[in-house]
Automatic annotation (TrEMBL):
Pfam families: SSF. The keyword Cell membrane applies. The lineage of its organism: Bacteria, Thermotogati, Synergistota, Synergistia, Synergistales. Belongs to the sodium:solute symporter (SSF) (TC 2.A.21) family. This is Sodium/proline symporter. It catalyses: L-proline(in) + Na(+)(in) = L-proline(out) + Na(+)(out). GO terms for cellular component: plasma membrane. It comes from the Bacteria. Coiled coil: none annotated. Catalyzes the sodium-dependent uptake of extracellular L-proline. GO terms for molecular function: proline:sodium symporter activity; sodium ion binding. GO terms for biological process: proline transport. It is found in: Cell membrane.
Length: 523
């Protein structure tokens, strides 16, 4: 009996069962998109971690470690602070702000925060472009992983991953996504730890790894890498800054803040996230260095180094267990991307600009159909696989960090931020970043992301200062979202002293304003 396949299919059956159960729990439109805002700290934390890690964990990261040795740990250095600060700095305020505004997607939050339908459309279009590319990378990772696991063609491996994600996402929506993410997160954590420590034991420990890796190429055990890519303070800091800003800006991570049970959940989730990511992130990069020593030179595809490593050092059943962890890594991100793309199309474009309000049951049906269509289209694109998952992931990651990371932070920390400032920041920073990356522009020797980040911040501040300041209701709402206290007590029930009477009045006035201004035309 093939025990690798047995353990793998047990995992797949368990994940599909979660989809069936959550379909019965959540049957409203808000449940389908953000889980009814009732997700606790542990599930929120693991949902964020697994969505962030993606198929990158078992393909791109080990491949990067295989090629670059210890130098790639600069990327891991940004993981823990980035993910923890995503909850600590952004999560609490964004959770509270989104409920005050009644927003269930990031583009809707932008529109209501800045009173700008144009900003909602621009944000939605950027999400459609960037997330679609990232979803293609997840299907590509699925094909690379499962083709090694089952010894099949790339297409077959990709098809298995796509079908399973599609099934439970259509059935259970956001609740299925976050609860499967929690299970997958535990599996990913256990899987990476088992692989790392078993492989390290086989090599002979850290000292032996250092000696053997240095014998392959002395540059592999330096912090700068074989091609000196990380030589110098700015070069080493660039991946750290990119990772941290990406944690603030990735829309499928931001939505995890909207869905938390209450704003105070963010503090608990921050601690859980920080601990687990520290234990997680360095390990999956180091497996690439271990693979370089154990598997030797000459891998045709370095992004299969991690997969080949576990079949080299583990018994069949545990190799199947690791296969499940690997599939979990890409499923946990692919499902979030699918749901994000669907919410953007259905909620931010179709429902928002429809002449007549679409009934909730119809919106739910449309959302499920769109999950299928988006998955099929992205699957077709991924049939012609790009060379490296890492290239796609980092390029798109940087774009999302600039387009949304800077506006997200400024929207909750600087009340003078305006819609014009955010729009100008998005357009200018993406122009610089994409142009410099694809056109090899020389921007005073700066990395394209760093140049884009400088432009994003400078343009947002300057344009905001030179345009009309926000209305007094917007400013009062900002103050209400900034103070401690949960929304139901502070605003709905009016029983908490965390929000002033003036701010509560402004919130109610603002809600009436949005009911009139943002209602679909024709009502």
């Amino acid at each position: 009996m093939n025990w690798a396949l047995v353990s793998f299919f047990i995992y797949l059956a368990a994940i599909c069962l979660v989809g069936v159960v959550t379909m019965r729990i959540g049957n409203t439109y808000e449940d389908f998109l953000i889980g009814g805002r009732r997700i606790g700290p542990w599930v929120s934390s693991f949902a964020l971690i697994t969505s962030y890690m993606s198929g990158y964990t078992y393909t791109a990261a080990p491949g990067l470690g295989y090629a670059g040795g210890y130098s790639v740990l600069w990327w891991a250095t940004g993981d823990a602070p980035g993910n923890a600060m995503s909850f600590g700095l952004l999560g609490r305020r964004l959770r509270k702000y989104s409920e005050l505004l009644g927003a269930i997607t990031l583009p809707e939050y932008y529109e209501k925060r800045f009173n700008s339908p144009a900003l909602r459309v621009i944000a939605a279009l950027v999400i459609l472009l960037t997330v679609s590319m990232h979803l293609v990378a997840q299907w590509t990772a699925s094909g690379k992983l499962l083709s090694v696991v089952f010894g099949t063609e790339y297409f077959t491996g990709m098809l298995i991953g796509c079908v399973v994600v599609l099934l439970y996402t259509i059935m259970g929506g956001y609740l299925a996504v976050v609860y499967t993410d929690f299970i997958q997160g535990l599996l990913m954590f256990a899987g990476t730890q088992v692989l790392f420590w078993v492989a390290l034991f086989k090599v002979g420990g850290f000292a032996a790894l250092n000696d053997k890796l240095g014998a392959v190429n002395p540059a592999l055990v330096t912090p700068w890498g074989p091609d000196m890519a990380y030589y110098g303070l700015l070069a080493a800091a660039t991946p750290i800054i990119l990772i941290i800003m990406g944690s603030f800006g990735m829309p499928h991570i931001t939505i995890k803040h909207f869905s938390m049970r209450n704003p105070s959940t963010a503090r608990q989730a921050m601690l859980i996230t920080g601990v687990f990511v520290v234990l997680f992130s360095f390990v999956y990069y180091m497996t690439g260095s271990l693979a370089r020593v154990i598997l030797g030179e000459g891998l045709a595809d370095v992004e299969q180094a991690g997969v080949k490593l576990w079949f080299s050092v583990l018994p069949p059943f545990w190799a199947g267990f690791l296969s499940s962890a690997a599939v979990a890594s890409l499923m946990s991100t692919a499902d979030s991307f699918l749901l994000l793309l669907v919410s953007t199309i259905a909620h931010d474009l179709l429902n928002r600009f429809s002449k007549h309000e679409i009934p909730e049951k119809k919106r739910l049906f449309i959302s499920r159909v769109l999950v299928l269509l988006v998955a099929v289209l992205s699957f077709i694109v991924a049939m012609n696989p790009p060379a490296l998952v890492f290239t796609i992931v980092i390029f798109v990651f940087g774009g999302m960090a600039l387009a949304f990371g800077v506006p997200n932070l400024f929207s909750v920390f600087w009340k003078r931020t305006t819609a014009a400032g955010v729009i100008a920041s998005m357009i200018c920073s993406l122009f610089i970043y994409v142009g410099a990356t694809l056109g090899n522009w020389n921007l005073l020797g700066l990395h394209p992301f760093i140049a884009g980040l400088v432009v994003a911040v400078a343009v947002l501040v300057v344009v905001s200062l030179f345009t009309e300041p926000p209305h007094k209701q917007t400013l009062a709402l900002f103050d209400a979202a900034s103070e401690y206290g949960d929304v139901p007590k502070a605003v709905a029930a009016g029983a908490s002293a965390a929000v002033s009477c003036e701010a509560r009045a402004a919130v109610n006035e603002r809600r009436e304003f949005f009911d009139k201004v943002l209602a679909p035309a024709g009502n």
